[in-house]
């Protein structure tokens, strides 16, 4: 038989040679549930710790151990491989050593298959397994219940797979897995952690921990702190929790999902495709202040999701500094708010679903204190009982985009906003959001009385300075309070605030009375008189005419209502179409408009009404105008089917009055379209002349078309050599005379005329010579 060099098998403490087909590592088989000596786990670890085989040591358990009971630890420090505390001073998780120690110069792996479990039965305050060396693998342990931390890691390259750490009956086991200073490249896969006293997986305080991956963790019943706990003053780089379930809706001792303690610095925190659901507790909880998070990613995760078992804040109120955050594709339901109270820079909140949110203190998504380069896009919010739905507050906001979100069914019973702006700044926009409050929905509480779709209270430095926000192109319906006593959009602050292109559906209170254009329940309310958009007086559209391709109206500048100020010309008019008294469709803008100008804008509508909103030369945005109910559809222009030198014929609308004008606009002729749809003018026009014709139907003039009368007739004796000579009317002077015998007299007379003409010419020639 050929033996493998450097590879041995230890069975029951006896060294056996390994075959050439075996791995190069040493294989040690545990055959005893004893606490020390040959064949025990402790004996195997002592051999592994002393090994010099560069290919490492693999420890396995004899199949005969399966079903024979757990490895039960007792005897205090006598049965601990490490009797000194491996945690730093001031640790909340300090221990009296470890029952089992892995501290080898070579890789060590332990496959616990065939072992029923490990239990520390005397509560000796020692960790279960301490991994102090590098390249260690632990797998397939049915259960480990230690008196302090189940597994403690300070080495590099530790892998723990398919291990359970459960202590459902006592409070001995304080921590499932504890990561100490120096732990790096740790992978924890398919762990089950139940009822530790303090935390499921904990990063020690003041520790530097790098590249941790937690995949497939099922943690529940943590009694004090959190399923994942990053302790104070720690520095963590690369920390991933994915495909995991933290908490259970049936927990009797629920706690937070991820806890970040004061002054923790975390770079590359990732929470992905997981569920965080401890009732009454936070998804991410912050204790104290001073946390710094860089390049955080929270994606595809369910926060809460259990009716009647709501979690508290999704992201708890915090003053942390966030730089680089992606919060996308998450399902937040039966949960509290997502709250940021510190700086938030380079963040994206996209494509999340927020439903059944309950929070009486914060908005469902609340941003502040300083917010820079943040996008809130494509999210849905439904059934929100919170202070607001989206709020941006604090010292300032720069380049914040709130766009393409859908917010509906706020259910608070006091005044709330779908979107509230409290922080001034630069380059911020609320755009293309759909905001719906359906008070006819019988599933909503009868006490619902939410007022505002968008509310601004951010102040600019002065009344003519920009607030730093624009509110553009949002679709709004149903806001304004149950009694419709409030405007859906409110500018209750100092400064210029562009509010343009926003439309309002049929459930939003409108009106036609121009006297109340600036009342609080109208579409936009510039509350602060001259300090809020200068409460600029809007123009009004009058004499509105539709023709199927455009709407034409007169831009009238009315007298200022009380409290309003004159719009500085020239103005830009933003035009809205409404079927009744709202503003359902934005048609576009018309620039450079002077008072009294006739203007037009493209639209295919031929019914309904127009409103305008005025932005004056100083950038002040007005309220929406009232509507002119006296609108008309412009008839099609009549057709001209033929002309004569003095008249014309054509077709039109039966009974219409045909009017012909010259190029000066003077009426020169009229006619009436007959029942057969034809009209004609036989006189009154001048040949070869341009005219303009229209028709008036029910008092409305049509569009005008030009036409030109027929060419003037020719006059006898003029043009083309025509004469009135002996050849008679129409004879041609250039033709030869008839020399036939029938008319010799004409020939003789012609000859005589030639002679006389010749004599006359001779006399004239002689006179010139004289």
Task: Provide an overview of this structure.
The chain has 770 residues and is mainly β. The protein has 2 helices and 65 strands. It has a 31-stranded mixed sheet that branches. An 8-stranded parallel sheet has the order 6-9-12-14-16-19-22-25. Strands 30-33-36-39-43-46-49 form a 7-stranded parallel sheet, with no helix packed on it. The longest helix is centred in the last third of the chain and has 26 residues, at 744-769.
Topology:
Blueprint: E1 3-11, E2 14-19, E3 26-30, H1 41-50, E4 57-61, E5 71-73, E6 98-102, E7 108-111, E8 118-120, E9 127-131, E10 136-141, E11 144-145, E12 149-153, E13 159-166, E14 175-179, E15 184-194, E16 199-203, E17 208-215, E18 218-220, E19 226-230, E20 235-242, E21 245-246, E22 256-260, E23 265-272, E24 275-276, E25 284-286, E26 292-299, E27 302-304, E28 321-328, E29 331-335, E30 338-339, E31 343-350, E32 353-359, E33 365-367, E34 370-377, E35 380-386, E36 388-392, E37 396-403, E38 406-410, E39 417-421, E40 425-426, E41 428-431, E42 434-436, E43 452-456, E44 469-472, E45 475-477, E46 489-491, E47 499-500, E48 503-504, E49 524-526, E50 540-546, E51 550-556, E52 571-578, E53 585-593, E54 598-602, E55 609-615, E56 621-624, E57 632-633, E58 639-643, E59 648-651, E60 657-661, E61 667-672, E62 678-681, E63 690-697, E64 700-701, E65 705-708, H2 744-769
Parallel strand pairs: 1-3, 3-4, 4-7, 5-8, 6-9, 7-10, 8-11, 9-12, 10-13, 12-14, 13-15, 14-16, 15-17, 15-18, 16-19, 17-20, 18-21, 19-22, 20-23, 21-24, 22-25, 23-26, 24-27, 26-28, 27-29, 28-31, 29-32, 30-33, 31-34, 32-35, 33-36, 34-37, 35-38, 36-39, 37-40, 37-41, 38-42, 39-43, 41-44, 42-45, ...
Antiparallel strand pairs: 1-2, 50-51, 51-54, 52-53, 52-55, 55-56, 58-59, 59-62, 60-61, 60-63, 63-64, 63-65
């Amino acid at each position: 038989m050929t033996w493998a060099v450097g590879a041995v098998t230890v069975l029951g403490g006896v060294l056996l040679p390994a075959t050439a087909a075996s791995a190069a590592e040493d294989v040690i088989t545990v055959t005893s549930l004893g606490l020390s000596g040959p064949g025990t786990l402790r004996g195997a670890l002592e051999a592994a710790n002393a090994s010099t085989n560069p290919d490492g040591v693999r420890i396995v358990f004899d199949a005969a151990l399966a079903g024979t009971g757990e490895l039960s630890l007792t005897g205090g420090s006598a049965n601990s491989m490490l009797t000194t505390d491996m945690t730093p001073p001031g640790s909340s998780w300090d221990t009296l050593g470890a029952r089992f120690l892995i501290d080898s110069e070579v890789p060590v792996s332990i496959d616990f298959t065939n072992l029923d479990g490990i239990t520390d039965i005397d509560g000796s305050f020692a960790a279960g397994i301490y991994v102090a060396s590098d390249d260690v693998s632990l797998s397939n342990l049915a259960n480990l219940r230690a008196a302090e931390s189940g597994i403690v890691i300070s080495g590099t390259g530790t892998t723990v797979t398919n291990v359970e750490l459960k202590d459902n009956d006592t409070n001995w086991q304080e921590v499932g897995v504890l990561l100490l200073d120096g732990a790096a490249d740790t992978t924890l896969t398919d762990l089950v952690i139940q009822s530790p006293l303090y935390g499921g997986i904990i990063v020690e305080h003041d520790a530097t921990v790098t590249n941790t991956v937690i995949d497939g963790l099922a943690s529940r019943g943590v009694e004090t702190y959190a399923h994942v706990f990053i302790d104070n003053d720690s520095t963590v780089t690369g920390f991933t929790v994915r495909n995991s379930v933290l908490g259970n809706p049936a927990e009797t001792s629920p706690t937070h999902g991820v806890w970040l303690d004061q002054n923790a610095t975390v770079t590359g925190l990732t929470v992905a495709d997981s569920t965080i659901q401890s009732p009454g507790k936070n998804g991410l909880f912050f204790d104290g202040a001073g946390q710094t998070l860089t390049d955080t990613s929270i994606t595809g995760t369910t926060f809460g999701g259990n009716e009647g078992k709501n979690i508290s804040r999704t992201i708890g109120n915090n003053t942390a500094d966030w730089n680089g955050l992606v919060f996308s594709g998450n399902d937040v339901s039966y949960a509290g708010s997502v709250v940021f109270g510190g700086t938030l820079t380079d963040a994206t909140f996209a494509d999340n679903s927020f439903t059944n949110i309950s929070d009486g203190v914060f908005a469902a998504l609340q941003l502040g204190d300083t917010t820079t380069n943040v996008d809130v896009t494509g999210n849905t919010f439904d059934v929100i009982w919170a202070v607001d739905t989206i709020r941006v507050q604090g010292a300032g906001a720069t380049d914040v985009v709130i766009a393409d979100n859908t917010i509906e069914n706020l259910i608070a019973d006091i005044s709330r906003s779908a979107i509230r702006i409290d922080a001034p700044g630069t380059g911020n926009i609320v755009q293309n959001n759909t905001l719906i409050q359906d008070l006819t929905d019988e599933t909503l509480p009868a006490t619902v009385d939410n007022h505002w779709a968008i509310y601004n209270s951010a102040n600019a430095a002065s009344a003519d300075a920009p607030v730093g926000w624009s509110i553009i192109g949002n679709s709004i319906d149903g806001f304004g309070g149950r009694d419709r006593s409030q405007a859906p959009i409110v500018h209750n602050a100092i400064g210029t605030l562009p509010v343009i292109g926003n439309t309002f559906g049929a459930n939003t209170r409108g009106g036609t009375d121009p006297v109340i254009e600036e009342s609080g329940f109208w579409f936009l309310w510039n509350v602060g008189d001259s300090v809020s958009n200068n409460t600029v007086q809007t123009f009004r559209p009058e004499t509105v005419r539709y023709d199927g391709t455009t709407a034409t109206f007169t831009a009238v500048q009315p007298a200022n209502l009380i409290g309003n100020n004159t719009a500085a010309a020239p103005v830009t008019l933003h035009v809205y179409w409404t079927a009744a008294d709202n503003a359902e469709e934005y048609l576009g803008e018309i620039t450079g408009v002077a008072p009294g100008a006739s203007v037009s804008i493209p639209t295919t509508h031929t019914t309904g009404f127009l409103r305008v909103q005025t932005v004056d030369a100083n950038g002040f945005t007005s309220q929406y105008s009232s509507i002119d109910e006296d609108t008309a559809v412009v008839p099609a222009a009549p057709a001209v089917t033929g002309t004569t030198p003095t008249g014309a014929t054509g077709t039109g609308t039966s009974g219409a009055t045909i009017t012909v004008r010259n190029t000066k606009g003077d009426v020169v002729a009229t006619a009436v379209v007959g029942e057969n749809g034809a009209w004609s003018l036989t006189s009154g026009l001048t040949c070869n002349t341009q005219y303009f014709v229209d028709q008036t139907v029910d008092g409305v003039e049509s569009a005008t078309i030009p036409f030109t009368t027929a060419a003037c007739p020719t006059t006898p004796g003029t043009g083309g050599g025509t004469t009135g000579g002996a050849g008679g009317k129409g004879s041609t002077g250039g033709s030869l005379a008839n020399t036939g015998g029938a008319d010799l007299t004409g020939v003789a007379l012609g000859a005589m005329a030639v002679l006389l003409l010749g004599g006359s010419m001779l006399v004239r020639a002689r006179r010139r010579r004289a």
